[in-house]
Amino acid sequence: MLFNSFTFLLFFLITYSLYIVLRKHLKGQNILLLVASYVFYGYWDWRFLSLIILSTIIDYFVGLNLDKSSINKHRKILLTISVLANLSILSFFKYFNFFAESFSEILALLGMSASYSTLKIVLPVGISFYTFQTMSYTIDIYRKKLKPIRDFSDFALFVSFFPQLVAGPIERASNLLPQIIKPRTITLQHIHSGIFLILWGFFKKVIIADNLALVANNIFNNYSDYTGLGLFVGVLAFTFQIYGDFSGYSDIARGISRLLGFELMLNFRLPYFAVNPSDFWLRWHISLSSWLRDYLYIPLGGSRGGSGNTYRNLMLTMLLGGLWHGAAWNFVIWGAYHGAILVIYRLLERGRELPVKADGSVDRAWLAIKITFMFILTMIGWILFRAHSYEQIMYFMTNMFSFEVSAIPSLLKVGRFILPLVIIQILQHRTKDLLIITKMKPVFLGLFYLVILFSLCVFSIRESVEFIYFQF
Amino acid sequence: MPSLTDRLPDEIFVPIKKRDVILPVTIMMVGIILINISLIMYLDRYPNEFGVIILKTRLQKLLADDYSWLILGDSSGRHGLNDSLFVAEGMGSTYNASTFGEMTPIYSVWFLNAYLEEHPAPEGVIIAHANDVFLRDINEKISSFAWTPLPFGFWKNYTPEIKLDLGATYRIFSARYLPLLSRPRETKMAIRYPDKYLFKKQLEYYNHEYGFMPRDADMERVDRDRIKQKNRIIEHNNNFSFSETSLLTFSHLNELGEKHNFTIYYCLVPVDEIVVTDKIFRGFYNQFVSQLKDVTDKYPNIKLISDKMYPVAKENLESFRHVTESVANEFTLEQIELLKEDIQSNN
To answer: Which residues, at least 6 apart from A44, have a Cβ–Cβ distance to it below 8 Å?
Structure first.
């Protein structure tokens, strides 16, 4: 079920009405949300509900037994069961064909032949999100940072909570579980900011991302017809398409959760205002980057053990982060690229990440240059992410940076969709407040909402377009 | 020393009152309702959707006068039968109120009903549809029906057997009363190209004395259309059969003919010459004619003007089923002769 569909609107209105009716019955509310979450997911393909339920059962019992056991060996075995089970499901559905094909190609390069068969596997929507979410639960219990939950249905709700089930944010048990087991209050703040997040999220997805997708798809699919600025426009369109699409989903998910009285973690903090790669990953898909930091980078040794180990750990983390996005080499290359620029920036900046003047204040001119440069590096990364072949990547890289008058109308078209986002984000950046818009006078806020709703009605692409991150 | 994390924006909450939540939402809701109402009024006067304009102007013109002959059909009739020639050849006042294929033949019943409520019966009604239009069901493009400028629920009054499901009824309601949701293209055009569309009376441009619309040849379009048409036939496994809507149409037309004492003539519109040579096209066409003959055998008030195929060379076509002006005139004159013969033989 897509957020940007009438089916979802109907589904949410029914669920929300029942949720309000059950406001004095926490258990009833949780059961309702669990059923709604399974309906939400099963609407896409009910067969894949079995995978969520399997993951839930394994991690529920592993969690309980981890808590009971004090023998280290037992605890390690239990954790291994959980991690292996989750990664096996993920690997089979997401990576089986990729590894089989890649293995065969490597053997072919070595002059050997191997027969292999690919399976027609459908990738279950959101599998990467909920497996990571549920794995963090058992790992945290193993680390004794978290107590397991006794109530199975509450745990099942934690795994399948519908607003963030298919495209995140990847929630931590320590944040979401307490909100599930304790009575929730829907405050004025929840409603106020929730409405803003939902409307703004829809604007980013339906108006910005879906309209820019038309431009980006056309240029990337027919790239050899374009040169210079024409190619640049395609990359620029995709840069804002992927941001609008993914951050739009996160905003809607967080807004819906707020209306239900939940607080999900912040997933984006104006990533295109980053000054360097470290800053970018503090702002982009925060729930994934922090997951990778806590459950991969730090266990690998993090920045302990000297520069060499740090760089190795960074590269490994980013390579796996790239692979998380999809079973294709371009995602691995994209991860490697981000790993490489993280290492290069660390080497060059040596802790001086922000340009500072003699009086200790930040040098704004230098900051703007750094932001622009990082934005260009991010755009180059998106070429690797979006391209389908090595030839395509090379074509973009060698032909993109030249001026072409004929591409100006396309640039203006893309600019028309980007401009409202840029204006609001500059405002958010300058005030360091992501909710600055909600602080307008109520009359102006009402007019702002009216413009958004009118745009959604008139300027949206008619067919509901799937969110990019559903496939991850 | 400032750090990266110091620069990160966050969500800052401040105390708010109820009115901070209620007022913006109220403004948004009231504003959107007002915009929608304004759009209903605006698009009624200044529609820029071709389908809406065609339906509106044709029904207006149809209801404005008494006619001896009425021509109803889709675009093949709109571009294939010249109503001015009917007048010139002494058939009496004639109006070609043909619309477009998406309306399916049932619209003929609605238009005819609306006409008969205000005017005396015509001498005859000519129905001109391309064969594949008879395959289409009422639910396929329901929003087009909503554009029909007749009171909401007209499909119940004029055709009691047609029962639309809830979804289809909602789509009609939305197309009529929620233009903000259902007619964004027209709104977008008015915003993007104000000099061309905003407050511009497109209706006047299409409101002519006669409904015939002449066309020029377009061979590239014919090529594209051939592929499209063949795919449509293959989709139906090369089998032609009238849709439920089409069968209802014949039954209602016959009832109206009986009640008001006039004949409905079905006109086999000109076809692309490929229908003669291509096995798939020909097979499909033959099935259609054969089933149409069954219909005319069943209903005494429905007749075929001629069962002869009228193939047209590609150079004289604008699309698979739109002929050029000269062919349309020749074809019309031939149909008029045949009609005159039939009328004489009946007398």
So the answer is: A1, A125
Mean pLDDT by 10 residues, chain A (472 residues): 82 95 93 95 86 92 90 90 89 74 72 61 78 92 92 94 88 93 92 96 94 92 86 94 94 96 95 94 94 92 84 92 85 93 88 75 85 95 91 89 79 92 96 95 96 91 60 53
Q: What percent of chain B has pLDDT over 90?
A: 56
- Structural domain containing residue A88: 6-184
Q: Does B182 touch chain A (CB under 8 A)?
A: no
Q: How many domains does chain A have?
A: 2
Beta-ladder partners of B94: B69
* Interface probe with A: pick from B16, B29, B170, B193, most Cβ of A within 10 Å: B16
Residue A215 located in a structural domain: yes
pTM: predicted TM-score of the whole model, two decimal places: 0.83
Q: A139, A161, A184: which is the final residue of a domain?
A: A184
Interface contact B167, partner A, CB < 8 A: no
**For the segment B217-233, what is each residue's pLDDT rounded down to a tens digit?**
999 999 998 898 888 88
In a domain, A293, yes or no: no
Last residue of one domain, picked from the residues A184, A219, A251: A184
Mind listing the pLDDT tens digit for each residue in B262-306? 999 999 999 999 999 999 999 999 999 999 999 999 999 999 999
Q: Is A151 helix (H, G, I), strand (E, B) or coil?
A: coil
| A53 and A194 fall within a common domain | no
B219 C-beta neighbours (distance < 10 Å), count: 14
Asked about A192 being catalytic, the answer comes back as: no
On chain A, the residues whose CB falls within 8 A of the CB of B28 are: 446, 449-450, 453
The CA-CA-CA angle for residues B199, B201, B203, to 5°, reads 145
> Using one digit for the tens of pLDDT, what is the confidence trace for A134-157?
999 999 999 999 999 999 999 999
Q: Which residue has the tokens 């790993």?
A: A339
CB contact under 8 A, B18 and A450: no
In a domain, A393, yes or no: yes
A461 and A376 together in one domain: yes
Chain A, 183 to 212: residues with Cβ < 8 Å from chain B are: 188-189, 191-193, 195
Same domain, A265 and A130: no
* Cross-chain residue pair A458–B18, CB shorter than 8 Å: no
Same domain for A93 and A135, yes or no, is: yes
A79 vs A77: CA distance, rounded Å = 5
Residue A40 shares a structural domain with residue A67: yes
Mean pLDDT for the stretch of residues B80-92? 95
Amino acid letter, B229: Q
Do both A408 and A431 map to the same domain?
Answer: yes
Counting one residue from A and one from B, how many pairs have CB atoms under 8 Å apart?
112
Cross-chain Cβ contact A434/B14 below 8 Å: no
- Would residue A68 count as lying in a domain? yes
A460 touches chain B (CB under 8 A): yes
One domain for residues A32 and A131: yes
Mean pLDDT taken over chain B = 89
Q: Which residue of A has its CA nearest to B17?
A: A188
Angle (CA) A337-A341-A343 rounded to 5° is 115
Residues A270 and A360 in one domain: yes
